[in-house]
């Protein structure tokens, strides 16, 4: 008995096993990122196949991102309580079944509903994957490098979604972008069962159901107003009701969270400037990325008459920039801290957006490719320092919630980017569409400029000294 009670705790996993865990989590995260953007390039085909316009197409994308964003925090908390591997596997199963429903959807309503269920599954993957990685990497410098790899894979998936989608649609039709998820989910389930150890938070909290409901209502109303506003009219009665409902949900959420002993979101964290700017920076980066992808798809398809495959191929420089620069960014964070890569990210995204401010029917392809390379490079540099700053702002035992807050900011940004970009071109004729996109490119540049503010407030110390 005494020998048992004094037994040494289990030794930490070997470096090989730690990086294998990262690889398995990265594969699953690739699914989440791809499905955030793979649909963008197929929107014209979906619109023709299901007879739906721009507003309905915006909901096809945002039903996924809004539901995922609203449930990320509670999924992270559930993972800390019930076991991260268990929740991760459940998320894969839900995601796979919802992908089947998307592939078989007979109408746009059915597709939007299936995409919402997909978002539920994805919410169990994104924060939990990061929590598993952080838990497996106890050394700060190794953790910074791992986050760089994780951000690289996630960035690659976001940028490669349109390329993959274009190829699949050209060969098999738009439903294939959902069918492709099924074998990947099966493979991921097997790998998780074999390689990923179970882990939990050192301290678990009660579930905050009132806070969860209010957060879901808040995000749905906010994004709904952005999508439906151009159609309803920004001063219409329905829009005014949406404004009031959004404000009431926001106020109720803050009030409930301040009074609960164990809130869904720890509002006290938002008193720290570095944490706030990291979360807002993550939102801005994904606003820029998703606005870019949607505006690009609609412009190239409707104005230039390009196919889905050609439209997706144009984003290859974006995927290249994101893939090459994200690991480099992680190394920079580990050695110098997050400030330098954030400055680089802000400069590249700002310049890329400005390259397209005067977009018209005759803009050269080389100019578009250069802009996408710059934006992708900025995206690659941005994710690791923002993620590292946000995760470092919370205790390691709250890794699930830390990842969830950052991932929520990303998905809110994705939803807002789609909603705003869709609103800019909703109801615009093909002849005027290029000019209608120009405010969107100014928005992309503004998102890049915000990263300079995030760099000013970020911790300038390298990861090893923190």
From TrEMBL:
Family membership noted in the UniProt record: Belongs to the major facilitator superfamily. EmrB family.
Native species: Streptomyces flavochromogenes
Ranges that cross the membrane: 21-44, 56-79, 91-114, 120-137, 149-172, 178-197, 209-227, 233-255, 275-295, 315-334, 341-359, 365-386, 407-428, 440-458
Alphabetically ordered keywords of this record: Antibiotic resistance, Cell membrane, Membrane, Transmembrane, Transmembrane helix, Transport
PANTHER family the record matches: MAJOR FACILITATOR SUPERFAMILY MULTIDRUG TRANSPORTER MFSC
Domain Major facilitator superfamily (MFS) profile per the UniProt entry, residue ranges: 21-458
Main location: membrane
Cellular compartment(s): Cell membrane
Membrane topology: Multi-pass membrane protein
Protein name per UniProt: MFS transporter
């Amino acid at each position: 008995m005494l020998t048992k009670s004094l037994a040494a705790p289990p030794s930490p996993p070997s470096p090989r096993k730690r990086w294998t865990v990262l690889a398995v989590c990265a594969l699953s995260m690739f699914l989440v990122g791809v499905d955030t953007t793979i649909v963008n390039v197929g929107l014209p085909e979906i619109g023709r196949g299901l007879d739906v316009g721009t507003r309905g197409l915006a909901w096809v994308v945002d039903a996924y991102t809004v539901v995922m964003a609203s449930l990320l925090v509670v999924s992270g908390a559930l993972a800390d309580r019930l076991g991260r591997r268990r929740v991760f596997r459940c998320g894969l199963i839900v995601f796979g079944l919802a992908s089947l429903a998307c592939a078989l959807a007979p109408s746009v309503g059915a597709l939007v509903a299936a995409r919402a269920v997909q978002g539920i599954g994805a919410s169990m993957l994104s924060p939990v994957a990061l929590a598993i990685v952080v838990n497996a990497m106890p050394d700060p410098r190794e953790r910074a490098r791992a986050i760089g790899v994780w951000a690289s894979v996630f960035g690659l998936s976001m940028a490669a979604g349109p390329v993959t989608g274009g190829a699949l649609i050209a060969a098999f039709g738009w439903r294939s972008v959902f069918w492709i998820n099924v074998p990947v989910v099966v493979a991921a389930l097997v790998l998780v069962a074999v390689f990923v150890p179970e882990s939990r938070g050192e301290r678990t909290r009660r579930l905050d159901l009132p806070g969860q409901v209010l957060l879901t209502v808040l995000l749905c109303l906010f994004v709904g107003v952005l999508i439906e506003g151009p159609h309803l009219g920004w001063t219409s009665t329905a829009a005014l009701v949406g404004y009031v409902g959004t404000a009431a949900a926001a106020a109720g959420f803050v009030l409930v969270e301040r009074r609960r002993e164990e809130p869904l979101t720890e509002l006290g964290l938002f008193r720290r400037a570095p944490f706030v700017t990291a979360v807002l920076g993550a939102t801005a980066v994904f606003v820029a990325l998703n606005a870019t992808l949607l505006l690009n798809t609609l412009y190239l398809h409707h104005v230039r008459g390009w196919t889905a495959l050609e439209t997706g191929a144009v984003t290859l420089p974006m995927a290249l920039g994101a893939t090459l620069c994200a690991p480099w960014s992680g190394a920079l964070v580990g050695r110098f801290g997050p400030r330098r890569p954030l400055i680089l990210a802000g400069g590249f995204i700002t310049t890329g957006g400005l390259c397209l401010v005067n977009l018209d029917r005759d803009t050269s392809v080389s100019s578009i490719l250069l802009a996408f390379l710059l934006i992708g490079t900025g995206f690659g540099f941005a994710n690791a320092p923002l993620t590292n700053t946000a995760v470092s702002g919370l205790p390691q035992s709250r890794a699930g919630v830390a990842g969830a807050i950052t991932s929520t900011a990303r998905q809110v940004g994705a939803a807002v980017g789609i909603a705003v970009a869709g609103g800019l071109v909703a109801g615009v004729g093909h002849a005027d569409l290029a000019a209608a996109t120009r405010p969107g490119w100014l928005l992309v540049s503004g998102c890049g400029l915000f990263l300079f503010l995030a760099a000013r407030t970020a911790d300038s110390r390298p990861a090893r000294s923190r």
